[in-house]
Design brief:
6-stranded antiparallel beta sheet, elongated, 5-stranded parallel beta sheet
């Protein structure tokens, strides 16, 4: 097999439609050249080391890999550890020694604002000139926009924090989701008559708007179930402590403890609320279930028809 690569360059948080334009071009070039299509991403986010700022991410690293492979058919997702050594690597060395020398890149694809190398000294113009010198192909993808402006990870993070899930999903080109393992909770949902699968937000992941969502839960066998998911601190019964993610699968019976689930967020139903009594909470959960079911029926989405 030809081990030469077309390499898509970026961080790809969210793997949104802007990234999609870049990844699609990489796939096309790889098919033309008969080589591998690879996406190069980093762990952790460069800003954490460069600026000392913790960057809340739309995806976990594993989910980012899964999206690029599943939706954009990358043969490989290469993970480069962003450490002090790499942060201080000169931009020419990154291209010549690492991309071309080590990865055997014969073609590169990047976005219009891509920067790289020590202190961000590498830019698109320098990359194009160096690629021409080395005989390596180079495509630069212009910004991808919609009516609201440039599609970017920063913009999508803001939308998710504000609870504008509909717009965020449009810009992502898929339903926002995360994967995690079901853990034992306090079993309060079961006591209330609504058994839930309890999960914690993966470390470093963006804390989206607290509230109740219509979601789809995908099991490891890719079976799908309509669900109501609460993201927040359960103020009525938990005293406003740690953030939890609790999903009530509407048509599922069985034990999910220890299993890995994919939670896809479809519609924001309402903000989280502290109820005066447990009976009010039970009535609200029951109404949330009815609302979610009506939403899925109106959308015509059956639980065995995947969107992702």
């Amino acid at each position: 097999m030809n081990c030469d690569r077309v390499v898509a360059l970026g961080f790809f948080d969210g793997v949104h439609l802007g990234h999609g334009a870049l990844l699609n071009r990489a796939r096309e070039r790889a098919d033309e050249l008969g080589c591998l299509a690879a996406a190069l991403t980093f762990d952790p986010h460069p800003d954490e080391l460069v600026y000392g700022v913790k960057m809340p991410l739309i995806n976990t690293l594993a989910d980012r890999q899964w999206l690029m492979t599943k939706l954009y058919f990358m043969d490989e997702v290469l993970i480069l550890k962003f450490d002090q050594e790499f942060m201080h690597m000169p931009w020419r060395e990154f291209v010549v020694d690492f991309l071309v020398g080590k990865l055997r890149a014969v073609h590169l694809v990047c976005g219009h604002d891509y920067t790289f190398g020590y202190k961000g000294m590498g830019n698109v113009k320098r990359l194009q000139a160096l690629c021409a010198e080395l005989g390596v192909g180079c495509d630069v993808i212009e910004k991808v926009e919609n009516a609201g402006g440039v599609i970017s990870s920063t913009r999508i993070r803001k939308l998710l924090k504000e609870g504008d899930l509909e717009t965020a999903n449009q810009l992502l080109g898929h339903q926002h989701f995360f994967s995690g393992t079901v853990v034992h909770g306090k079993k309060l949902g079961r006591l209330l008559g609504f058994p839930t699968a309890n999960m914690t937000l993966p470390d470093g992941m963006l804390e989206m708007a607290h509230g109740v969502y219509a979601t789809e839960i995908v099991l490891s066998d890719r079976s799908r179930y309509m669900a109501v998911t609460n993201v927040g601190r359960r103020p009525t019964v938990n005293g406003g402590q740690d953030v939890t993610v609790e999903s009530w699968l509407l048509d599922f019976k069985g034990d999910l403890y220890g299993r890995i689930l994919q939670v896809e967020f479809c519609k924001y139903l309402r903000p989280e609320k502290k109820f005066d009594t447990v009976d009010e909470l039970i009535a609200a959960i029951r109404h949330d279930g009815e609302t979610a079911r009506a939403y899925f029926e109106a959308r015509g989405q059956q639980s065995d028809q995947p969107l992702l």
